[in-house]
Amino acid sequence: MWTQGYAAKQAKVQLEQTSFDLGELGPNEVDVRVTHCGVCHTDVAMVDNEWGISQYPVVPGHEVVGVVEAVGSAVTELAIGQRVGVGALCGSCMHCEWCIGGRQHVCPQVRGTVMGEHKGGFASVVRVDHSLFAHPIPDGIASEHAGPLLCAGTTVFTPLLRHNVLPTDRVAVVGIRGLGHLAVQYLSKLGCEVTAISSTHDKDEQAYGFGAKRFIATRGTDELQRATAQFDFVLSTVSADLPWDLYMATLRPQGKLCIVGIPANPISVVSWNLIGGERSLVGGQPGSIVETRRMLEFTARHGIKPMIETFPMSEANAALDHTRQGKARFRSVLVA
Q: Where are the beta strands (DSSP E) in 40-130?
Protein backbone atom coordinates (compact mmCIF):
# COMPACT_ATOMS: atom_id res chain seq x y z
CA MET A 1 0.00 0.00 0.00
CA TRP A 2 1.33 3.41 -0.99
CA THR A 3 0.71 6.46 1.18
CA GLN A 4 2.07 9.97 1.65
CA GLY A 5 3.91 11.64 4.49
CA TYR A 6 6.57 14.12 5.53
CA ALA A 7 10.06 12.62 5.69
CA ALA A 8 13.60 13.67 6.56
CA LYS A 9 15.99 12.13 4.05
CA GLN A 10 19.06 12.85 6.17
CA ALA A 11 19.91 14.36 9.53
CA LYS A 12 18.95 17.94 10.40
CA VAL A 13 17.14 18.78 7.18
CA GLN A 14 13.64 20.02 6.44
CA LEU A 15 10.94 17.41 6.02
CA GLU A 16 9.81 16.82 2.45
CA GLN A 17 6.46 15.49 1.31
CA THR A 18 7.00 12.05 -0.14
CA SER A 19 5.26 8.80 -1.04
CA PHE A 20 6.26 5.46 0.45
CA ASP A 21 5.12 1.85 0.33
CA LEU A 22 3.85 0.22 3.52
CA GLY A 23 3.75 -3.15 1.83
CA GLU A 24 1.03 -5.77 2.09
CA LEU A 25 -1.08 -5.74 5.27
CA GLY A 26 -0.18 -8.63 7.59
CA PRO A 27 -2.76 -10.75 9.46
CA ASN A 28 -2.30 -8.96 12.82
CA GLU A 29 -1.60 -5.50 11.42
CA VAL A 30 -3.83 -2.44 11.32
CA ASP A 31 -3.75 0.67 9.15
CA VAL A 32 -4.88 3.90 10.82
CA ARG A 33 -5.93 6.95 8.81
CA VAL A 34 -4.26 9.84 10.67
CA THR A 35 -6.40 12.75 11.86
CA HIS A 36 -4.04 14.17 14.53
CA CYS A 37 -0.42 13.66 15.56
CA GLY A 38 1.44 15.09 18.53
CA VAL A 39 5.01 16.34 18.20
CA CYS A 40 7.53 15.05 20.76
CA HIS A 41 11.21 15.77 21.34
CA THR A 42 11.83 12.16 20.29
CA ASP A 43 10.63 13.14 16.81
CA VAL A 44 13.26 15.89 16.78
CA ALA A 45 15.87 13.42 18.01
CA MET A 46 15.04 10.93 15.26
CA VAL A 47 15.04 13.56 12.51
CA ASP A 48 18.32 15.04 13.76
CA ASN A 49 19.85 11.64 14.62
CA GLU A 50 20.67 12.81 18.16
CA TRP A 51 21.00 9.22 19.39
CA GLY A 52 22.82 7.80 16.36
CA ILE A 53 20.08 5.24 15.59
CA SER A 54 18.01 6.95 12.89
CA GLN A 55 17.39 5.12 9.62
CA TYR A 56 16.52 7.45 6.77
CA PRO A 57 14.14 8.40 5.41
CA VAL A 58 12.55 9.17 8.79
CA VAL A 59 8.82 9.89 8.92
CA PRO A 60 8.32 11.27 12.47
CA GLY A 61 5.25 11.07 14.65
CA HIS A 62 4.45 8.62 17.45
CA GLU A 63 1.48 10.32 19.14
CA VAL A 64 -1.03 9.33 16.49
CA VAL A 65 -4.82 9.56 16.56
CA GLY A 66 -7.03 8.47 13.71
CA VAL A 67 -9.58 5.96 12.51
CA VAL A 68 -9.08 2.34 11.58
CA GLU A 69 -8.91 2.09 7.80
CA ALA A 70 -7.93 -1.56 7.30
CA VAL A 71 -7.42 -4.62 9.50
CA GLY A 72 -5.53 -7.85 8.93
CA SER A 73 -7.28 -11.18 8.59
CA ALA A 74 -6.64 -12.19 12.22
CA VAL A 75 -7.85 -8.92 13.80
CA THR A 76 -11.19 -9.24 15.58
CA GLU A 77 -11.20 -6.55 18.29
CA LEU A 78 -11.19 -3.45 16.06
CA ALA A 79 -13.71 -2.21 13.53
CA ILE A 80 -13.26 -0.14 10.40
CA GLY A 81 -13.92 3.50 11.27
CA GLN A 82 -13.15 3.07 14.98
CA ARG A 83 -11.17 5.90 16.61
CA VAL A 84 -7.83 4.71 17.98
CA GLY A 85 -4.45 6.00 19.07
CA VAL A 86 -0.96 4.71 18.30
CA GLY A 87 1.81 5.63 20.68
CA ALA A 88 5.55 5.22 21.05
CA LEU A 89 5.26 1.44 20.65
CA CYS A 90 3.69 -0.27 17.64
CA GLY A 91 4.52 -3.94 18.16
CA SER A 92 6.34 -6.68 20.05
CA CYS A 93 6.85 -10.42 19.64
CA MET A 94 3.71 -11.20 21.73
CA HIS A 95 5.05 -14.62 22.81
CA CYS A 96 8.09 -14.08 25.09
CA GLU A 97 7.85 -14.15 28.89
CA TRP A 98 7.59 -10.36 29.01
CA CYS A 99 4.75 -10.14 26.49
CA ILE A 100 2.85 -13.07 28.02
CA GLY A 101 3.23 -11.38 31.40
CA GLY A 102 1.65 -8.18 30.08
CA ARG A 103 4.92 -6.23 29.84
CA GLN A 104 5.16 -5.79 26.09
CA HIS A 105 7.04 -2.51 26.49
CA VAL A 106 10.17 -4.34 27.73
CA CYS A 107 10.01 -7.15 25.16
CA PRO A 108 13.50 -7.65 23.66
CA GLN A 109 11.87 -7.36 20.24
CA VAL A 110 9.61 -4.40 21.00
CA ARG A 111 9.22 -2.11 18.01
CA GLY A 112 9.12 1.62 18.47
CA THR A 113 7.01 3.84 16.27
CA VAL A 114 9.39 5.82 13.98
CA MET A 115 12.27 3.63 15.12
CA GLY A 116 14.15 1.56 12.54
CA GLU A 117 12.29 1.41 9.25
CA HIS A 118 8.88 2.20 10.76
CA LYS A 119 7.11 5.23 9.31
CA GLY A 120 5.33 7.44 11.81
CA GLY A 121 2.27 9.64 11.96
CA PHE A 122 3.42 12.69 9.97
CA ALA A 123 1.59 10.88 7.20
CA SER A 124 -1.80 9.98 5.81
CA VAL A 125 -1.69 6.43 7.20
CA VAL A 126 0.33 4.75 9.95
CA ARG A 127 0.63 0.98 10.26
CA VAL A 128 0.64 -0.89 13.57
CA ASP A 129 2.54 -4.20 13.74
CA HIS A 130 -0.01 -5.74 16.09
CA SER A 131 -3.60 -4.60 16.48
CA LEU A 132 -3.41 -4.43 20.30
CA PHE A 133 -1.05 -1.47 19.97
CA ALA A 134 -3.92 0.51 18.42
CA HIS A 135 -5.69 1.78 21.54
CA PRO A 136 -9.40 2.70 21.50
CA ILE A 137 -9.80 6.31 22.61
CA PRO A 138 -12.45 6.91 25.32
CA ASP A 139 -15.31 9.18 24.29
CA GLY A 140 -14.35 11.74 26.94
CA ILE A 141 -11.04 12.59 25.26
CA ALA A 142 -10.97 14.85 22.20
CA SER A 143 -8.75 13.69 19.34
CA GLU A 144 -6.52 16.76 19.50
CA HIS A 145 -5.87 16.05 23.19
CA ALA A 146 -5.46 12.30 22.79
CA GLY A 147 -2.24 12.40 20.73
CA PRO A 148 0.14 13.64 23.46
CA LEU A 149 -1.28 11.07 25.87
CA LEU A 150 0.03 8.19 23.72
CA CYS A 151 3.66 9.06 24.51
CA ALA A 152 3.93 11.83 27.11
CA GLY A 153 0.90 10.59 29.03
CA THR A 154 1.87 6.94 29.30
CA THR A 155 5.52 7.83 29.94
CA VAL A 156 4.70 9.73 33.13
CA PHE A 157 1.67 7.68 34.22
CA THR A 158 3.29 4.24 34.02
CA PRO A 159 5.94 4.88 36.71
CA LEU A 160 3.18 5.85 39.13
CA LEU A 161 1.72 2.37 38.71
CA ARG A 162 5.06 0.58 38.51
CA HIS A 163 6.41 2.12 41.73
CA ASN A 164 3.16 2.11 43.67
CA VAL A 165 2.94 5.86 44.20
CA LEU A 166 0.26 6.42 46.85
CA PRO A 167 -2.22 9.29 47.43
CA THR A 168 -0.43 9.97 50.72
CA ASP A 169 2.95 10.46 49.01
CA ARG A 170 4.78 13.74 48.59
CA VAL A 171 6.01 13.87 45.01
CA ALA A 172 8.12 16.29 42.99
CA VAL A 173 8.03 16.69 39.20
CA VAL A 174 11.16 18.09 37.58
CA GLY A 175 10.37 20.06 34.41
CA ILE A 176 6.99 21.62 33.64
CA ARG A 177 6.85 21.07 29.91
CA GLY A 178 5.40 18.41 27.62
CA LEU A 179 5.74 15.50 30.04
CA GLY A 180 5.86 17.36 33.31
CA HIS A 181 2.63 19.31 32.97
CA LEU A 182 0.76 16.04 32.50
CA ALA A 183 2.60 14.39 35.41
CA VAL A 184 1.51 17.17 37.77
CA GLN A 185 -2.11 16.68 36.72
CA TYR A 186 -2.01 12.90 37.17
CA LEU A 187 -0.39 13.12 40.58
CA SER A 188 -2.78 15.81 41.74
CA LYS A 189 -5.81 13.76 40.71
CA LEU A 190 -4.25 10.74 42.40
CA GLY A 191 -4.27 12.75 45.62
CA CYS A 192 -0.55 13.34 46.10
CA GLU A 193 1.00 16.50 47.45
CA VAL A 194 2.79 17.73 44.33
CA THR A 195 5.80 20.05 44.10
CA ALA A 196 6.78 21.41 40.69
CA ILE A 197 10.48 22.00 40.04
CA SER A 198 11.73 24.23 37.23
CA SER A 199 14.72 26.45 36.59
CA THR A 200 12.82 29.69 37.29
CA HIS A 201 9.53 30.84 38.76
CA ASP A 202 8.14 31.71 35.32
CA LYS A 203 5.72 28.76 35.38
CA ASP A 204 4.47 29.08 38.96
CA GLU A 205 0.88 29.97 38.13
CA GLN A 206 0.60 27.35 35.40
CA ALA A 207 1.95 24.67 37.72
CA TYR A 208 -0.53 25.64 40.42
CA GLY A 209 -3.28 25.49 37.82
CA PHE A 210 -2.25 21.93 36.97
CA GLY A 211 -2.54 20.97 40.64
CA ALA A 212 0.87 21.63 42.21
CA LYS A 213 0.88 22.80 45.83
CA ARG A 214 4.49 24.02 45.91
CA PHE A 215 7.05 25.31 43.42
CA ILE A 216 10.84 25.14 43.55
CA ALA A 217 13.07 27.21 41.26
CA THR A 218 16.62 25.90 40.90
CA ARG A 219 18.49 28.69 39.10
CA GLY A 220 20.20 31.16 41.39
CA THR A 221 18.37 29.97 44.54
CA ASP A 222 18.92 27.52 47.37
CA GLU A 223 15.34 26.24 47.22
CA LEU A 224 16.36 22.76 46.06
CA GLN A 225 18.98 22.45 48.80
CA ARG A 226 16.32 23.39 51.37
CA ALA A 227 14.11 20.51 50.16
CA THR A 228 16.32 17.83 51.72
CA ALA A 229 14.48 14.61 52.66
CA GLN A 230 11.05 15.92 51.63
CA PHE A 231 9.84 13.62 48.82
CA ASP A 232 8.79 10.00 48.53
CA PHE A 233 9.09 10.07 44.74
CA VAL A 234 10.79 12.46 42.31
CA LEU A 235 9.98 12.22 38.60
CA SER A 236 12.52 13.86 36.28
CA THR A 237 10.97 14.63 32.90
CA VAL A 238 13.73 16.81 31.45
CA SER A 239 16.33 15.94 28.83
CA ALA A 240 19.09 17.69 30.73
CA ASP A 241 22.08 16.88 32.90
CA LEU A 242 21.11 17.73 36.46
CA PRO A 243 22.95 17.79 39.80
CA TRP A 244 21.74 14.28 40.55
CA ASP A 245 23.10 14.09 44.09
CA LEU A 246 21.10 17.18 45.04
CA TYR A 247 17.96 15.47 43.76
CA MET A 248 18.82 12.22 45.54
CA ALA A 249 19.16 14.28 48.74
CA THR A 250 15.57 15.47 48.41
CA LEU A 251 14.32 11.90 48.86
CA ARG A 252 12.99 10.53 52.11
CA PRO A 253 14.20 7.08 53.24
CA GLN A 254 13.30 4.43 50.62
CA GLY A 255 12.35 7.20 48.20
CA LYS A 256 12.84 6.89 44.44
CA LEU A 257 14.22 9.20 41.78
CA CYS A 258 12.70 8.13 38.46
CA ILE A 259 14.23 9.31 35.18
CA VAL A 260 11.92 9.50 32.14
CA GLY A 261 13.71 12.33 30.32
CA ILE A 262 16.89 11.43 28.44
CA PRO A 263 19.98 13.34 29.64
CA ALA A 264 22.84 13.68 27.19
CA ASN A 265 25.51 12.29 29.54
CA PRO A 266 25.80 9.36 31.97
CA ILE A 267 24.07 9.78 35.33
CA SER A 268 26.40 9.68 38.31
CA VAL A 269 25.50 9.67 42.02
CA VAL A 270 27.47 9.14 45.19
CA SER A 271 26.92 5.55 46.30
CA TRP A 272 26.05 6.58 49.84
CA ASN A 273 23.05 8.49 48.49
CA LEU A 274 21.66 5.13 47.38
CA ILE A 275 22.79 3.02 50.33
CA GLY A 276 21.89 5.49 53.05
CA GLY A 277 18.14 5.32 53.55
CA GLU A 278 17.81 2.61 50.86
CA ARG A 279 17.02 5.16 48.18
CA SER A 280 16.62 4.12 44.54
CA LEU A 281 17.47 5.53 41.11
CA VAL A 282 15.17 4.03 38.47
CA GLY A 283 14.17 4.56 34.86
CA GLY A 284 10.79 4.72 33.17
CA GLN A 285 9.43 4.42 29.65
CA PRO A 286 6.08 4.31 27.82
CA GLY A 287 3.97 1.56 29.36
CA SER A 288 2.52 -1.74 28.30
CA ILE A 289 -0.76 -2.16 26.46
CA VAL A 290 -2.73 -2.47 29.73
CA GLU A 291 -0.94 0.43 31.43
CA THR A 292 -1.50 2.71 28.44
CA ARG A 293 -5.20 1.90 28.44
CA ARG A 294 -5.43 2.49 32.17
CA MET A 295 -3.84 5.88 31.58
CA LEU A 296 -6.48 6.70 28.97
CA GLU A 297 -9.28 5.63 31.31
CA PHE A 298 -7.85 7.69 34.19
CA THR A 299 -7.43 10.70 31.91
CA ALA A 300 -11.04 10.52 30.70
CA ARG A 301 -12.42 9.94 34.21
CA HIS A 302 -10.69 13.01 35.64
CA GLY A 303 -10.96 15.31 32.63
CA ILE A 304 -7.19 15.71 32.32
CA LYS A 305 -6.03 17.57 29.21
CA PRO A 306 -2.63 18.38 27.78
CA MET A 307 -2.06 22.04 26.97
CA ILE A 308 -1.63 22.10 23.21
CA GLU A 309 -0.94 24.27 20.19
CA THR A 310 -2.24 23.03 16.84
CA PHE A 311 -0.66 23.20 13.37
CA PRO A 312 -2.03 21.94 10.07
CA MET A 313 -0.19 18.85 8.83
CA SER A 314 1.12 20.93 5.93
CA GLU A 315 3.12 22.95 8.50
CA ALA A 316 4.91 19.89 9.90
CA ASN A 317 8.29 21.62 9.63
CA ALA A 318 7.09 24.62 11.61
CA ALA A 319 5.66 22.38 14.33
CA LEU A 320 8.87 20.35 14.51
CA ASP A 321 10.99 23.53 14.74
CA HIS A 322 8.66 24.87 17.44
CA THR A 323 9.43 21.78 19.53
CA ARG A 324 13.13 21.75 18.58
CA GLN A 325 13.48 25.31 19.90
CA GLY A 326 11.64 24.54 23.16
CA LYS A 327 8.82 26.96 22.36
CA ALA A 328 5.88 24.54 22.59
CA ARG A 329 3.44 25.31 25.40
CA PHE A 330 3.32 22.50 26.12
CA ARG A 331 2.68 20.14 23.22
CA SER A 332 2.31 20.78 19.51
CA VAL A 333 -0.30 18.77 17.61
CA LEU A 334 -0.60 18.37 13.84
CA VAL A 335 -4.12 18.30 12.41
CA ALA A 336 -4.61 16.43 9.14
A: 64-71, 83-86, 89-91, 111-112, 125-128
